Amino acid sequence: MRRAIALIGLFGIIGAGLSLSVLPTSKTVAAPSDQRIFLIPASDGYGVADCLSTKTSECGKIVADAWCEAQGFAKAVSFGVAAREDFTGSVSKPSLTSEAEQPLSITCGE
User: Fold this and answer.
1) Which residues constitute the domain of residue 98?
2) Is residue 53 one of the residues assigned to a domain?
3) Can you point out the beta strands (E) in the chain?
4) pLDDT, tens digit, for every residue of 25-47?
């Protein structure tokens, strides 16, 4: 009886291994559009605003590329402080006066 149970378990393990080896491998695929814009709050708590607010910063390029890769895109096309047109209607009052309070924008693409 023990031998039969051991053989059933062994065949189950072999079957599971074969089924996993037959499955096709897939990678993360980005959205069908070529580019996508992400708006990130300047006060996100991770210090992303420090790097992304200056377009010439090498730190900003690294952070923006990492953000895009995490979203399934190849790289960041552009990044920086979002233009007011990018987030119009998403705030209740036009109280955003300084660039530090404005959301950040990352455009991701292939």
Assistant:
1) 35-109
2) yes
3) 35-40, 75-81, 104-109
4) 666 665 456 888 888 887 776 67
Using one digit for the tens of pLDDT, what is the confidence trace for 32-87? 568 888 888 877 766 778 787 766 678 888 888 988 999 889 999 988 888 777 66
For the chain, what is the domain count? Answer: 1
Number of neighbouring beta carbons within 10 Å of residue 80: 19
Residue environment code for 17-53, b if the CB has 16+ CB neighbours within 10 A, otherwise e:
eeeeeeeeeeeeebeeeeebebebebeeeeebbebbb
Amino acid at the residue 80: G
Task: Report if residue 21 sits inside a domain.
Answer: no
What is the dihedral angle through the alpha carbons of 48, 51, 53, 58, rounded to the nearest 10 degrees? -140
